[in-house]
Amino acid sequence: MAFAHRVGAKWAVTASVIALVAGGAQVAAAQDAEPTELGEIIVTAQKREQSIRDVPIAVTALSAESLDVMKIEGGSELLRAIPNVSFAKSNFSMYNFAIRGVGTKAISASSDPAVAVSFNNTPLLRNRLFESEYLDVQRVEVLRGPQGTLYGRNATAGVVNMLPNLPSPIFEAMAKAEVGSYGTLRGQAMVNVPLSDTFFVRAAGSFTQRDGFDHNTFLDTEVNGRDLWSTRLSVGWEPNDRFRANLIWEHFSEDDDRLRTGKTLCTKDPTKTTYGSVRLTNLEWAGRMNQGCLPGSLYNDAAYDTPNGLGLGQLIIASGIGMGTRIVNGQRITVNLLDYADPFAGQTQSKNLREIATSYNPKYVAENDVVQLNLEYDVSPNLTFYSQTAYSKDDFYATQDYNRFVSNELFNSSDGLLKGDVVAPSRIAPGGYYTDPQLGASRRMESADLSRSDNKQFYQEFRLQSSNDGGFNFSLGANFLDFKTQDDYYVFNNLFTALAEWFYGPDDNYTDTNTRRCVDGSDPRANECVYVDYSPLDALVGDGHNYFRSLNKVHTRSWAVFGEGYWDIGQKSRLTIGLRYTDDNKTTTPYPSQLLLGYKDADGVGVTTGGRVARGYYALPDVEQSWSAVTGRAVFDWKPFDGLMTYASFSHGYKGGGTNPPRADMDPAVVQYQPLAEVFEPEYLDAYEIGAKYLSPTGAFGLNVTAFYYDYKDYQVSQIVDRISLNENFDAESMGLEFEAVWRPTENFRIDGNFGLLKTRVADGEESIDIMNRTQDNPDWVVLRPWVQVPSNCIAPKAVVERLLSSPAGASFGSLGLAMLCGSAGRYGSFTPDYPGIIPFTLLTGITYDPWKDAPNRGRGFAADLSGNELPNAPRWTANVGAQYTWHFSSSELTLRGDYYRQADSYFRVYNTEYDEIRGWDNINMTVTWAFPQSDLLIQAYVKNLLDDAPIVDAFTNSDDSLLTTNVFTLDPRLWGVSLTKRF
Predict the structure, then answer these.
(1) Residue 507's pLDDT is what?
(2) DSSP strands (E only) in 184-340
(3) N or C: which end of the chain has fewer CB within 10 A?
(4) What span, in angstroms and rounded, lies between the C-alpha atoms of 30 and 979?
C-alpha cells in the first residue's frame, strides 16, 4: 500500500505546476471539504536529517513522486520547480545552471562550476546529470545561495544534490514501459533484495530511445535523437546497530545523433561598394571590411540569413591557388581552385528553429561512471563518524556541422588542365570535388567541429557529527579532491586542408599538380611545411596543422577543513556558525593551437606563417596557480510561534580562478599578434539573506518568503576571442525576492507555485570589448579582417583606410595592406618602421601607423561600458503556478495535473544590446495518472510543451573568423507519452 500513498505526490515545498481541473465524477466516497494537512519533507540540506521547515536555508526538495507527476525527468527541467533558476546547454561539453543570476559563464577547461552538482552529497566537477534521466531517485534538493561550508568548493551560487534510493531490508521491485511521440521507447526497472538481515542489494536500469525531432532539409533526414542507457547497482551492509555501509556504482552512456547546439543565426553584413570617398573596385577590399554577421536582434527575420563569407581568410587565399591552365578562344587562362565570391550568396535559412541544413551527420557519445563508498559509525549514541569515498570518470565525444547551413558549390574541376603544354593529372579537385581527409569529398566548403573531453575525479570526505536533543550540535570534517581533465576542441574546414596541401605544400610552385605531404620542416624545396593529418575523423591522430585544435590539460587538487556549530538559544532561537578553509591548486599544461602554422628547419621559423613547428602540438611550461580562502556563514533563526520560522544569514563564498586557453603559437618577429590575459581571477561573494517559512495551524497552507542581496567580486564571464574562451572578471551585485506557496484546501485538491524577482547589476566602471561591435558605432573607425592565421578582427581609422585604398599602391596591395593594419607581418610588410617587412607600405603610401600605439586597445576595439548592465542568464522574474485534482473511484484514483512556467526577458551576454536579448518564454505541461492501489499498477499519460513552442532560451557568439555567427538553444518540441508501471 506504500505505492498508493506515493501516487498523490506529497508536498515537496515548491512545484512549478499549472492546470486547473474542473468537472465532476461519480466517486466512491464523498470528498472531504475540510483542509488537509501538508506532508512532512525530510531533507539533508545541512548534511543531517531535518524537516525542511526547520532548515534556515532557501531550499527546494522534490521527491521522486513530485518529479514524476510534474514530469521533471532530468536536471535541465528543474528550472520549472524553483524560483530564480535558469538552465541552458553551453557551446561545448558543459552547461550553465544559474541560480539567482549566478551560473557558469566561464567555459574554459580550468574554470569551475558556480553551482555544485552532487550525486548523493559528492560534488562532481564533470557529470552527465543534466543529460541523463532520473533513475530510482529518492529526492532532489536544490539549495540557493553560497553553500561552501558543508558542500565544498564551487558552491557560490548553490547546490543541486541528487539522492538515490539506497538498498533496504524490504523486498520491492518495479517495472515501467513507455511509448510516445517521435518513436519513443522507454523502460525502467528496479529490484531491491535483502539477501540476509544485514546485507541488501538494489539494482536499477533504464533506457530511452527516440527519433530525432530536428529536420535536416539538405539530406531530408531527422536528427537530434536520443539513445540513452543508465544502470545503478548498490549494496548495503548493516552488521550491527552502530555500523552502516553502502557501495554504489552508477553508469550512464549515450550514443546518438543529438545536436550539441541548435540552429545558427546571422544578420548578414552586406557587401560594401564604397567606403567614405573610396569606391571599392576590388572585391577583396570589401571582404576585408566585412565581419560576416551584424549584431541584430535574433527575433528579426533578418537573423535567419547566412553570413557574408567574403572576409574568410582561407577563401581569399584559396582563390589564388592555381591548378593549371586552359586554352579558351586562343587565350591561356589560369584555373584556380575556386573563384573568389561569397560562398553563401543566395543561400537562405528556414525560419523554423527545428530545421537545419547540413551534409554532415552529427554524432554524440557520452559515458560516465561513478563509484561511491559510504561508511557510518556511531561512536556514541549522539556522535557519528562519516566517510565518503568516490571516484568518477567521464568521457565525451560530439561532432556536428559547424554552421548547420550549406555553402554554394565552390571548387572548380582540375580535369583536363594543362601544365605547360601537357595535360596534368587531375589531383586537386577531380570533377570539382576536393577531398578532405576528415570531411570527405565535396564541391562545397565543408566545416565541422569536434568536442572531446576525458575527465577523472577522486573525492574523499571525513565528517564527525553530533545529534544531541538540544543545546549544542556540531559537524566537523575535512575533504580532498583530485580532478584531471583533458578537453580537446577541433574545427575542421576543407579550405584549411586545401591551403596546407596546395598553397604551402606543392612540390615546386603554387601551380604544381602534386603536394609533398611533408612531415617536418626538413624539405629544402618548400618555403615551409604545414603538416596535414590524413587520419579519418573516427580515428583522428590529432597532430595536424590543417585544422584548429585547442588542447587543454588541467589538474586540480583541493583540500579543506570545515566545521559548523548549532546553538539553541532558549526554546525558539538558534545560532549557526560555520567556517571553512579551502586550499586550491591548479596546474595547467598549455598547448598552443597550430592552425595553418608551418616551419622550415633552414630558417628556424615558418617564414610565412610564423609557426615554430611543422607538426604536432608541444606543451609550454606548466602554469601553477594556487589560492586559499576562508569562507563560511552565520545564521540566526527564530520561531516566534508554532508554524513560523524566520531567519537572517550572512555567507561568504569563493570560486577559484584559472588560465585562459593558449592561443596560436606565432613568432612575434614574423606576425604581430595582440596580447591577451593568460589567467583570470577567483571570484568572491558576500551574500545577505532573510527569510520566513510559514505553515498554517490547520497544516493546509504553506508559504516561504526569501529576500537576498549579493555583492560579487570578480564574477567570471567568457567570450570567444582569438579562437579561445577568454575569461574576464567583473564586479557585480544581485538582489531579489522569492515566494513559494502551496495550498491544499481538501484532500483531493492542491494548488502550488512560486515566484522569483531578480535584479542584477554590473558594477560601475567595468568594461569589455564587444567583438560584435568593436568600433562601438564610432563612424571614424572601421572593422577589418586580418591575415588567415590571425583569428580576431581589428579596427583601424577611417582616414587611414581611405588613404591606403586611394593611394597608387592601393590597386596592387590594398587587400594585403588592410590586413596589415591589424598587425604587421615580417613576410609581407608593415606601416611602421619599428616592424620592418618585405613590402614597404609606409614608403608606398606615405602612411605611418602602428595599431599597438595608434588604436584603442592595440587595435582590438573600443571597450563597451558595462556599468549597470544585467548579468547574463538572469531573467528579471520567473513564475510557476499549478494545480492537481484527484478523483477516487471504488478501486482506483485518477489525478489530473498541469504545470505552467514563465521566464521574463534576459540577456545572453553581458553587453545587454538588442542582439543579446532573450525574450521571455513560457511552457505548459500536463499529466493524467490513473492508479490502481490494490494492484500496485499505474497508468500515466503526459504532454510536455503543450503548445509546441520553440523559444530561444540561450545563445552563443562564435569567433571573428567564424564570421560572428550565433548558435541558439531552444526547448524540446511537444512530446507526449503513455506509460504503464507495475510495482511488486
Answers:
(1) 66
(2) 184-194, 199-210, 214-216, 221-223, 226-237, 243-256, 264-265, 267-268, 274-275, 278-279, 293-294, 322-328, 331-336
(3) N
(4) 29
The three three-digit cell numbers of residue 628, written as one number: 586559499
Q: What are phi and psi of 854, to 5 degrees?
A: -100, -5
**Beta carbons of 423 and 415 less than 8 angstroms apart:** no
- For the full predicted model, state whether its pTM sits above 0.85: yes
Q: Is beta strand 137-144 parallel, antiparallel or unpaired with respect to 58-63? A: antiparallel
Percentage of the chain lying above the pLDDT 70 cut: 94
Helix (H, G, I), strand (E, B) or coil at 52: helix
Please state, in angstroms and rounded to a whole number, the distance separating the CA atoms of residues 130 and 144.
Answer: 18
| The residue type at 695 | L
Task: Indicate the burial class of 890 (C-beta count within 10 angstroms; 0-12, 13-18, 19 or more).
Answer: exposed
Give the integer Cα–Cα distance in Å for 762 and 907.
13
Instruction: Say if residue 339 is exposed, middle or buried (CB neighbours under 10 Å; 0-12, 13-18, 19+).
Output: exposed
- From 87, 158, 96, 152, select the one nearest 718 (Cα to Cα): 96
Residue type, 455: N
Indicate the SS3 state at residue 501: helix
In 3-state terms, what secondary structure has residue 105? strand
The grid cell for 887 is 478523483
Residues linked to residue 559 through DSSP beta bridges, in sequence order? 480, 583
β-sheet bridge partners, residue 825: 671, 829
pLDDT band at residue 411, thresholds of 50, 70 and 90? very high
Query: Exposure string (b/e) for 757-773, b if CB count within 10 Å is 16 or more?
Result: bbbbbbbeebebbbbbb
- Rounded to an integer, what distance in angstroms lies between the CA atom of residue 418 and that of residue 477? 78
Kindly report the length of the chain.
984
Please state, in angstroms and rounded to a whole number, the distance separating the CA atoms of residues 131 and 662.
29
DSSP string, 113-182: -SEEEEETTEE-SS--TTTS---SEEEEEEEES--HHHH-SS-SSEEEEEEE----SS-EEEEEEEEETT
Q: In what order do the strands lie in the sheet with 214-216?
A: 221-223, 214-216, 355-356
Q: To the nearest 5 percent, what fractions of the chain are helix, strand and coil? A: 10, 50, 40
Taking only the tens place, the pLDDT of each residue in 202-237 is 999 999 999 999 999 999 999 999 999 999 999 999
Task: Confirm if 77 and 61 have CB atoms less than 8 A apart.
Answer: no
Rounded to 5°, angle at Cα 334 from 328 and 338: 110
Place of cell 580532498: 480
- Work out the percent of the chain whose per-residue pLDDT is above 90: 75
Give the containing element (helix H, strand E) for 815.
helix 810-820
**Where do we find the cell 577583396?**
284
**pLDDT tens across 58-83, in order?**
889 889 988 998 899 998 899 999 99
Strand 921-932 to strand 917-918: parallel, antiparallel, or no bridges (unpaired)?
unpaired
What angle do helix axes 798-806 and 810-820 make, rounded to 10 degrees?
150
Residue 799 corresponds to which amino acid? A
Could you give the CA distance from residue 88 to residue 873 in angstroms, rounded to a whole number?
A: 9
pLDDT (tens digit, 9 = 90+) per residue, 647-686?
Answer: 999 999 999 999 999 889 888 888 888 788 899 999 999 9
Extract the runs of DSSP E, i.e. beta strands, from 170-213. 172-180, 184-194, 199-210
Residue labelled with grid coordinates 533563526: 637
CA pair distance 388, 246, nearest whole angstrom: 10
Separation of alpha carbons 907 and 980, rounded Å: 41
Would you state the pLDDT for residue 516?
A: 77
Decide: residue 978, CB within 10 A, 0-12 exposed, 13-18 middle, 19+ buried: middle
Please answer whether residues 92 and 98 qualify as being in contact, where contact means their C-beta atoms are separated by less than 8 angstroms: no
The residue among 554, 370, 391 whose CA lies nearest residue 459 is: 391
For 401, half-sphere exposure in the C-beta direction (CA atoms, 13 angstrom radius) is 22
**Distance (Å, rounded) from C-alpha 185 to C-alpha 230?**
14
Residue 651 is placed in which grid cell?
555567507
At 984, the amino acid letter reads F
